[in-house]
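pinned: reference chain
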Amino acid sequence: MLDKKFLGQEIKKQRRSLGYTQSEVSVATKLSRNYISDIENGRYSPSVDSLSKIAIFF
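pinned: its structure tokens
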């Protein structure tokens, strides 16, 4: 099982390295900005569908 805090940190690191805001990821993936923030801060573990949307965007 992948640690949700680690996963969130990696998503945030990737987003920042590509120069995207949480809002841009939100619009492109059709996931709420609050949900993106919660994932990045380790409060939620994303579903496979959500993680897939984020990965495809990146």
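why pinned: The chain has a mean pLDDT of 96. The two ends are 22 Å apart (CA to CA).
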